[in-house]
């Protein structure tokens, strides 16, 4: 069985060779949170923010980022995603937004980094668009919630911080 590592024989960094891995359906689900003042969240949800539709802009930014993860994260493979979905919803306590991304493909390597990049960039987009009205926003809780497919099978977080 080949060793999947980012180090070559001499210890130098390289992209993992996944040639010998089987193609399979793979999916990853990640989340992030943007904590903010209740008034900022109200403006976003009501579509009354001075910079326009924050939710739509962040959703598109997250999808675009997932597609370009290999350009942002060193040694990531360029993947042909078959589906990327980004959702933004208000927290149950009204303290901010929960951002989730699901990425899918049929391939030789997983899509965890694509889902994590999608939620990260969507959260940064919310921050960028809202910083003039709420500089105290906090991006937090970026984590993988679930991963399916590949050699390691199915993994699901059971509580915050599982890994």
From TrEMBL:
Q: GO biological process: any one?
A: Mo-molybdopterin cofactor biosynthetic process
Which Pfam families has this protein been placed in? Answer: MoaC
Give the annotated active site. 128
| Family of this protein | Belongs to the MoaC family.
User: What is the name attached to this protein's record?
Assistant: Cyclic pyranopterin monophosphate synthase
Q: List, alphabetically, the NCBIfam families matched.
A: moaC (TIGR00581), PRK09364.1 (NF006870)
- Which HAMAP family does the annotation name? MoaC_B (MF_01224_B)
Report which superkingdom the organism of origin falls in. Bacteria
GO-annotated molecular function: cyclic pyranopterin monophosphate synthase activity
Which InterPro entries does the annotation name? MoaC, MoaC_bact/euk, MoaC_sf, MoCo_biosynth_MoaA/MoaC, Mopterin_CF_biosynth-C_dom
Question: How does it associate, per the subunit comment?
Answer: Homohexamer; trimer of dimers.
What gene name does this entry carry? moaC
Tell me yes or no: is S-adenosyl-L-methionine among this UniProt entry's keywords: no
Q: What does this protein do?
A: Catalyzes the conversion of (8S)-3',8-cyclo-7,8-dihydroguanosine 5'-triphosphate to cyclic pyranopterin monophosphate (cPMP).
Biological or metabolic pathway of the protein: Cofactor biosynthesis; molybdopterin biosynthesis
| Gene3D superfamilies noted in UniProt | Molybdopterin cofactor biosynthesis C (MoaC) domain
Every copy of the Molybdopterin cofactor biosynthesis C (MoaC) domain together lies at 15-150
Q: Which reaction does it catalyse?
A: (8S)-3',8-cyclo-7,8-dihydroguanosine 5'-triphosphate = cyclic pyranopterin phosphate + diphosphate
Positions contributing to substrate binding: 75-77, 113-114
Keywords recorded for this protein, A-Z: Lyase, Molybdenum cofactor biosynthesis
EC number in record: 4.6.1.17
């Amino acid at each position: 069985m080949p060793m999947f590592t980012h180090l070559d024989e001499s210890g130098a960094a390289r992209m993992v060779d996944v040639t010998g891995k089987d193609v399979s359906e793979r999916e990853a689900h990640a989340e992030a949170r943007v904590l903010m003042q209740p008034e900022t969240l109200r403006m976003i949800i009501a579509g009354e923010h001075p910079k326009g539709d924050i939710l739509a802009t962040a959703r598109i930014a997250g999808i675009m980022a997932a597609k370009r993860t290999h350009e942002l994260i060193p040694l990531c493979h360029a993947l042909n995603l078959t589906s990327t979905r980004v959702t933004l919803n208000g927290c149950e306590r009204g303290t901010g937004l929960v951002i989730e991304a699901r990425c899918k493909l049929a391939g030789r390597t997983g899509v965890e980094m694509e889902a994590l990049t999608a939620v990260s960039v969507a959260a940064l987009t919310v921050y960028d668009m809202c910083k003039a009205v709420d500089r105290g926003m906090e991006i937090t809780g970026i984590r993988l919630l679930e991963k399916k497919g590949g050699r390691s099978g199915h993994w699901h977080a059971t509580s915050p911080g599982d890994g």
